[in-house]
Structure formats: structure tokens, C-alpha cells
Amino acid sequence: MTLVFTGVFALVTIPLVVVAKVYSSVIKPFNWARPNPNPTSILITGASYGLGAAFAKAYAGPGIHLALTARSEDKLAETRAACEAKGATVMVGVVDVTDQEAMADFITTVDEAAPLELVIANAGVSEQSVGLAKELEASTRRLTDINVVGVYNTVFPAIDLMKTRQAGQIVIMSSLAGFGGMPASTAYFTTKTAMKAFGYGLRGQLNKYNIGVTTICPGFVRSEMTRINKFPMPGLMDEAPAIAYMMEGIAANVSVVTFPWPMYLAVWYMQNMLPDDARDILFMPFLALRNRRSSSTNKSD
């Protein structure tokens, strides 16, 4: 009976989800913060690797002021050089996003040079968490510091500055992982779920200040961050079209950008429609890994 109900409910709700996504992606939201399709002063964290570096290079051009942060000075210098070669003015900060004071100081300095119009809180790490309890605790605390607190340290100083101008946009990098949990990546899924909820709430709260908020929930994108993954990555997307798709959503001040669609619908259905017992059965192969130790960390900072 439960499976029958689930099937009927899916037939009703999945078309509604599709319609809602088309509406939010195609039709300009009514009475929301005005989109700024051509920001000229942009802050991007985690700009030394992966999507952060790709965002920086994609936005770079004459008349564009970029502020880039990361912990890797050498890699950040490479991103800076690539952006300057395209004509952008670039400020860099070798800053750890978990350092609240250092982030606030850098953001204030950047804003004084060129008032920020767009902030992309991209810095983050992913990590397999299938080891012992102590390892899981350490992984959860480490990822929370970077993926959650690091985002707070990025967006709150920027929000204070944008509120005085009644303009700006914040981009929160979540993931399709933000739609639920997986036993092999408990810490990562937890942080991305938190960021999806944070982005949802922040969008409503900041609208009265004409500050847009877009939450991005990508699937697998081919980059330095995913290159070391040793498991199948369904729907793996090349970096260039993924960046273009995300930038299109940001320019339109879309609430949530999710892709690829087949993966989004599969994840949404699995986490929201499957009975708990069925989900437990589905996750059994991951539970079989419970005695293995954590083995990999992917970085985008």
C-alpha cells in the first residue's frame, strides 16, 4: 500500500516540480530584488581551484574588478594572472574562510576599492566519511568550519555593506547533496543541506533591501575537485557549460539553480518520496563500508 501511495504521489508531484522549476528559471520572479546581469565588482572565495577559478576566469574582462580568496597562494596567483590577461583588475587575499576577522577585513578593503555587487561564497571541501566514530566527528567539525562557518564569514560582512546601498547579490554554493543524506558522506551532505536552507531563508530576508540571493545546487562537474573521485559520477558535466548555466541563473536572480535535471529529479524523488525502509535498502552498499577508514578529501578553496 505504501509503495502504491508513493507511486501515485510521485505521478502528481513530479510534474508540479518540473513546472515550478521552469517557472523559476524562465519567468522573472515578481517583486523580487532586481537582477544585475552585468556585475562589475565581484568577490569569489575558493578561487584557486575548480569552480571558483572557473567563475573568476568567466567573469574576468575589461572594466571588471575581481576580489579572489584562497589558501593556496601559488594557485591563486595563477588564477589572478589568467584574469588579468583578460583585462580584469584583480585583488587577491590569501585568507582562510574560517578566519572571521581576516575575512571581514579583506571584504571591507575590497569594498572600499570597488563596492561589491556580487559575492560568490564558493570555498568548500568534500570528504568521504565512512570511518570510525572519531573520524566522522573530526570530518563533520572540519567540514562545518569550512562549508558552513566559512560561508557565514563571507556573506555577513558583505550583507552589511550591501544593505547600506540597497543593492547587491549573494550566491551560496550548495549541491544536489543538499537534498538529503548518504551514509558514505554524512558530513558533506549535512553541510550542503544546511547551506541550501540558509540560502532559501536569506533570500526572503534580504529582499526588502534589494539584495538578491541565489543558491546553487550542482551535480557532478568535471574539475580538480571531482577528478580524484573513485566512484561513478552520473550526469558528470563539463566545467564550461556548467559555469555558463550557473552564471545565467545568477544573472536572472533565480532562487535556486539545480542541474543536471535527471540527477536533480532522481535525488529529489529518492529523498522525498521513497519510504524509509526502501531508502535503507538502497543505502545498504554504503553501510557495508562502515569499517573502512576515510580516504579522500576534495578541495575547492
From TrEMBL:
<dbReference type="InterPro" id="IPR057326">
    <property type="entry name" value="KR_dom"/>
</dbReference>
<protein>
    <submittedName>
        <fullName>Short-chain dehydrogenase/reductase superfamily protein</fullName>
    </submittedName>
</protein>
<feature type="domain" description="Ketoreductase">
    <location>
        <begin position="40"/>
        <end position="214"/>
    </location>
</feature>
<comment type="similarity">
    <text>Belongs to the short-chain dehydrogenases/reductases (SDR) family.</text>
</comment>
<dbReference type="InterPro" id="IPR002347">
    <property type="entry name" value="SDR_fam"/>
</dbReference>
<keyword id="KW-0560">Oxidoreductase</keyword>
<dbReference type="GO" id="GO:0016020">
    <property type="term" value="C:membrane"/>
</dbReference>
<dbReference type="InterPro" id="IPR036291">
    <property type="entry name" value="NAD(P)-bd_dom_sf"/>
</dbReference>
<dbReference type="GO" id="GO:0016491">
    <property type="term" value="F:oxidoreductase activity"/>
</dbReference>
<dbReference type="Pfam" id="PF00106">
    <property type="entry name" value="adh_short"/>
</dbReference>
